[in-house]
Structures are given as C-alpha cells and as structure tokens.
Amino acid sequence: MARIFTGIIAVPIVTGIVYYGSPLYFLIFVSAVVLTAVYEFFTMIDRTGVTGFPILGMVLSLLLLISLYFGGRFLMEWGLIASLTLFGMWFLQEKNVKLAIDQIAYTLFGIFYIAGLGGYCLLIRKLEDGNILILFLFLIVWLGDISAYYWGKNFGKKFIAPLVSPKKTMEGSIAGLAGSLLAGFIVEAWLLDYIALGHCLLVAFLCGIIGQFGDLAESLLKRHVGIKDSSNIIPGHGGVLDRIDSLLFAGPAFYCYFKLML
Q1: Is the pTM higher than 0.90?
Q2: Packing angle, helices 75-93 and 97-110, rounded to 10
Q3: How many CA atoms lie within 13 A of 67 on its CB side?
Q4: Which residues contact 149 (CB under 8 A, 6 or more apart)?
Q5: Residue 216's Cα: distance from chain center in Å?
Q6: Which helix (H) or strand (E) element contains residue 162?
Q7: Looking at residue 186, what DSSP letter applies?
Q8: pLDDT computed for residue 95 by the predictor
Q9: Radius of gyration of the chain (CA)
C-alpha cells in the first residue's frame, strides 16, 4: 500500500513538471533527482571501506548536467576541471597511496553512472516535442517496472540472476516487456500519432530490455555492498537510485534511437 500510495502522489507531480514545466524547471528537477541518487551512491560505497569524494562528486555531477543542458557545449572544459579537482582533492586530503586510485575511480564512476547517463533526459527534452518524448520514456520504464513487479511477484517461477537479484524472474521480465510495449501503443495513439507505430513499438521494446539491464546493474552494486535498497527516502520504493536505475540505461538508448532513426 505504501508503494501504491507513493505512486499516486508522485506520478502526477512528475508528469506535470515534465509536460508543463519549462526546460529550466526540468533541469532543476533532474538535478535534484540526480544529486540525491549520487549522494545515495556515495553512502553505499562507504560500506566497502573506500570513501570517495561525495561533495566534489555532487558538484561535478551538477556541472556535467549543466553542460548537457547546453547540449554538451562545455564537456571538454568539464573533463579538465574534473581531472584536476579529483587528483587535487586526493593530494590535499589523503596520504594512503594504495587507496588513491580506488577513491578517484569510485567518484568518477558515480558521476558517469548517474549524472552522465541521467543527463540524457536533458538531451531528450531538447528534441522536437521533447516533453512528450520524456513522458514516453517514463511510461516505457514505469509500465515495464509495474508489470514486471506484480506479475513476477504473483506468477514468477524461473529466476534470471539469483546471485545478483534473487527475486527477478523470467515471467516478470516478459511481463515487463509487455508493459513497455503497451507504452508504445498508448503514446503513438494519443501523443505521437505522426510517428509510425512500428518506431514507437521498436524503441519501447529496445528500451524495455535495456532498462531491465539497468535494474540488474544497480542490483549488482547493492549486492556488492550488502544492502537491499539504496536508501529509504521513498516510502515503499526504497531510494531514488532504486527508482531511476532502469531509466539510467533506457534514457541513452532512447535518445540514440530518435537521433539516428528519426
């Protein structure tokens, strides 16, 4: 019930921001979500015994999002700043040479994994009818997750990756793809009728599959640090990273499909 109640409140709010909000408001929304997920990532990494640079990681994540908001115009400058500040931070704070590469690598990985992949939503928002395309992407992920969760919970028998995600089943995965395809039908019929149904279904199918790999990727990270959820900030859903893990992988695939195929 907590999961359902939270969804009833959150979905209309997110939909309103995505569909009616200006690009700047959407940047603020994406930044808030991404920075919260980055913070959760560093909290998780602390459990491995290697402390990254959370404050610097969040600052660099925000700068990366801003660069993507402007179409990636400042990525070269961002790379220089990130390199200098990360190595400079270690020289200022740490003396254990054996942990230096781990700290820098974990920090960079968190930035690229969450802010880098999540920032594709900003690129999608800049495409023609970007607000509708973002809703399409969200529907692919939402309907896929909902279908996979409830069908797998009630009818799942064959486990896909028990070592990484003990509750993921083949039946749930297939139901998730069906939910993603349903998103393609809905969006083509109501919002993107000028795009061929075949394109909507194909991108929904591809993103549905890739999104499930995103879910498994975060599950691998959680198993590595020995926790069930990235945090408990969202009642019934765990953490922010738990909610966007599929989106982090599906977003870049969605953007590339529309840029290359349409």
Answers
A1: yes
A2: 150
A3: 18
A4: 172
A5: 12
A6: none
A7: H
A8: 64
A9: 19
